[in-house]
Amino acid sequence: MDKNIKISNELVEKFILNRSNKITKKTTSYSLLSISNISIHNLLNRKMRSFILIFGIALSITLLANILLLFKIQEFSPEETDIILLKEYQYWLSLISLLIGFISVGNSVMLSIFERLFEIGTLRTSGCSSFQIIYLFAFELFIISIIGGFVGSILGFFAIFLLSLPDTTINNVLDIFSRNFFDIYPIILLTLIFLSLIITLLSSIPALFKGSRYKIVETLSFQI
């Protein structure tokens, strides 16, 4: 019985692959620009999923953003030593939040790919290669991580008032930050965006490769 089912599945797979090859020959292969447009379209159509990923990335780097901002502020105002008196637990919290963000982003990407297996199968039958499937999701994650890094830097600034010492006044921080805005914020922002890119892409590598290696018959069966 199991042998017959296996043979039947192999025949179905061969049929779909043959059909896919015929379709692929008749259609022009996707360019990276068209794949990028599909990625943007997917982000706009899946606003809630995109928001969850962006928010998760932003939260994972918020504490680190807070620490980086405080250190940078001290560079421009060494006399305000009370501003930079960070406690050891803040460093550990930032590392833990990065680890949690790494795991949560990877799980979210895996779930997103699983939900879109039929879409992957459809793209594969219409001429998309495995590399283009990886690029499709990687481009989405690239956009999400940039937005997440930007949001995380803003949250990190507000976290200063929540995690700094009681004797640190809001006026002191705002005054130093406003006077040296273009010397402080752009560097922090670029650092956090780069970090969010690394976290997002590294945590998504297993999910991306797994999604690109699904057989066409497996992906299409999820909609049948």
Q: Total number of β-strand segments?
A: 0
Number of domains: 1
Shape estimate: elongated
Name the structural class.
mainly alpha
Radius of gyration: 23 Å
The H/E string reads HHHHHHHHH
Reported for the largest beta sheet, the result is: none
The low-pLDDT segments are: 1-9, 23-28
Distance between the termini: 22 Å
Instruction: Give me the number of helical elements.
Output: 9
Kindly estimate the percentage of residues that lie in beta strands according to DSSP: under 5%
The amount of helix comes to: over 70%
- Let me know the average pLDDT: 75
Can you walk through the features of this model?
With 224 residues, this protein is mainly alpha-helical. It has nine helices and no strands. The protein has helices at 2-26, 32-45, 47-76, 88-115, 117-125, 130-163, 170-179, 181-212, 216-220. It is elongated and about 60 Å long. Residues 1-9 and 23-28 have low confidence and may be disordered.
Outline of the structure:
The protein is an all-alpha fold. The chain has helices spanning 2-26, 32-45, 47-76, 88-115, 117-125, 130-163, 170-179, 181-212, 216-220.
What are the key terms here?
224 residues, mainly alpha, 83% helix, disordered N terminus
Please render the helix and strand layout as text.
Layout: H1 2-26, H2 32-45, H3 47-76, H4 88-115, H5 117-125, H6 130-163, H7 170-179, H8 181-212, H9 216-220
Helix pairs in contact: 2-6, 3-4, 3-6, 3-8, 4-8, 6-8, 7-8
